[in-house]
Amino acid sequence: MQKLFLLIMFFVIISVSPALGQDVGQKITLTTDKTAYNSGDVITLTGSVEKVVDGLDMSIQIFSEVDGNTNLVEIAQVIVTEDGQFTKTFVARGAQWQNEGNVVIKATYGQESNELSVKFFLQSGTDFSSIYEVIIPQGGTFDINYTMKGGILKSVELNENDLSLDIGIETDSDGSLNIEIPRNSLDSVDENGFDNDFIILIYNSGNEYPAQTDYQELEKTDQIRSIYVPIKNGDNKIQIIGTHVVPEFGTIAAIILAVAITSIIVLSAKTKLHIFTKF
What we know:
Elements: H1 2-20, E1 28-32, E2 36-38, E3 42-49, E4 58-66, E5 69-78, E6 85-91, E7 101-109, E8 112-121, E9 130-135, E10 141-159, E11 164-182, E12 186-187, E13 199-204, E14 211-212, E15 216-220, E16 224-231, E17 235-241, E18 244-245, H2 249-278
Parallel strand pairs: 2-8
Antiparallel strand pairs: 1-3, 3-6, 4-5, 4-7, 7-8, 9-10, 10-11, 11-16, 11-17, 12-18, 13-14, 13-17, 15-16
């Protein structure tokens, strides 16, 4: 009888052991490689659990939040390694990835769960949705078309000393800036008139010095150059440096010099006429 009782207790302990590994103290950590994604991007999710339960997989659910509604986008089961680590990749593309906004990634292990939120954007190509009027220091203005993702554009200033556009931004996630630059306002060309690359510097609140970043040229015509600049959460300024800005200092100097020479000639002519009359 005692042996039977011990045998029953043994099977009871085995059957409830997974539940013992799913107690309130279970901790799940989650992280993604970025905080914002565009359509077609690969989302890499990594994480860990504090207590591993043999044979128990991690359940991953992805939800899209649109107009106050939460819609299930994808679901997957992920193996947890012996040291409690797990990873999973998703491609942000397909019939369910049609709405921009917040995307919630939820991980569930037994009775415990954790979640994080990222931003999702549809690629907009060269469709610029906003216009900013830039003031020219010596007078006049010009417009730039732009689309900002992951934050807001706060200011755009023409910097004649650095031959650049200085763009103040405020970010709340990773994202991008698509900007259409008029060539007669800012351009980057060599001495033969052929296009050069812009120099793009990114200023971040967490770094003492700016960092140069790569960009993608979306469109190029005789009138404009459209570029795509990736940004990170915490970036607060983008500086686009070219080879000349409007109005060019050399042009202004030439005009001032011409006016000065003309004035001298006129003044000299009047002086000679006055002297000739006096004699």
